Amino acid sequence: MNANLFNSFKKKHPVLTNFVLIVIVFAAGCYASLMLLDVFTSHGQEVKVPDVRYKPINEAISLLEDADLTYQIDSIYNEDYRPGVVIDQTPTPGLMVKKVRIVQLTINMIFPPEIQLPKELTDMAGSDGVTLLKSLGFRNVKTDTIPSDKRGLIIDITVNGHKVALGTKARVNSGIVLSVGDGKMDIQEYDPLGDAQRDSLLQEQIRRGTIRVENDSFEDTDY
Question: How many alpha carbons lie under 13 Å from residue 172 in its C-beta half-sphere?
Answer without folding.
Answer: 18
